[in-house]
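Narrative summary of target 7.
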Amino acid sequence: MPVVRDLRVLLRLRDFRSLLTVRLLSQAADGVYQVALATYVVFSPEKQTSAASIASAMAVLLLPYSVVGPFAGVLLDRWRRRQVFLYGNLLRAALACGTGVLIVAQVPDWLFYASALSVTAVNRFVLAGLAASLPRVVGPDRLVTANALSPTAGTLAATAGGGLAFLLRLVAEDSDALVVLLGAVLYLGAALISLRLAIGLLGPDHEPGVRHPSVPEGMALTVRGMAEGLRHLSGRRDAARALTAMTLMRFCYGALFVMLLMLCRYAWSRTEAEGLAWLGLAVGVSGAGFFTAAVITPGAVDRLGTRGWITACAAGSAVLVPALGLFFAPGPMLAAAFVLGLATQGAKISTDTVVQSQVDDDFRGRVFSVYDVLFNVAFVAAAGTASLMLPPDGKSVVLVLSVAVLYAVTAIGMARRERDGRRFT
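Modeled conformation, tokenized:
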């Protein structure tokens, strides 16, 4: 198979393997850390008892990403990306250890959130840097396959890390701090693996004699840098359209995620452990969808183009979400989780490829930071919207139908041809 052949070629590239390993360890640690936070904040009965409170927790955890994101892009276009992976993961390991101490000490919630937000803020630099670095270790002819393998493998690693955290949480009572420390170990491993990459390999390239700005100077350049990145993106309509579609699909995914969480916690279970088991199973099934997307997306893009594949993912979701979700039963909802995992990751692979192909290297950090901002704002907005629509047991026909309509609108928007008849390449 062409995909298998391309994967073998990619995995023979030493620098690609090293970058992929950094991603796998980093995102596995993210999965561990996020599940630790979810079980500590959401599944503790005395802390979170409604969709509104869950949405509030998501906002606290995700909105700061949107604040840090633009600054991450401006600085990533000036800092060595390899150094970001090294020092960023070392810092996250230290901060995660601090979070574990705070959990054991049972400090006030605001202090716990401050520690958690510090870890997730650094995450913006690492993830944006990984996306911007990928074209530096693979050729343009295999960029689609690399985008299918690398981000999807990272998502699967996060899923595996989350699964490990779920398992540890289920077998050991009061193990939230231990789970956080496991995440810290994985962050440390990612930092050490990054040392295998040459300092200047991942860019960005700087002209000789050009002074690197200090952090305060970089912060001062943020507004201008974001304006330049947006202006650069506005001149690349295919990339802008793909980002818009991906943002809408992320909103849909976020709304359905909150509904699924409520179903797991209240409709399908009587105990915290049972609810965690259902959620862990749903995350695993969704991860299988991510994996399937990685396998089939390169071939689908060859046949349909990136715009056609994004359209197909959105259209399929528009049909299958109500067909499966309106039962509000575990079996159909797990099938829906698989479909959404496939559709969301398939669209993301295509969007990543369009942005990487059309955005100049000097602007990739800024544009991918915009990408991250849109992702997180869409998810938080979806959680807030879902909190207004969901009843205590999580069963909302209106929410399911509204999401299906939004998927359909996305598919229709992507299906509209440009006036010159071109499709994404």
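Residues 418-424 have pLDDT under 50 and may be disordered.
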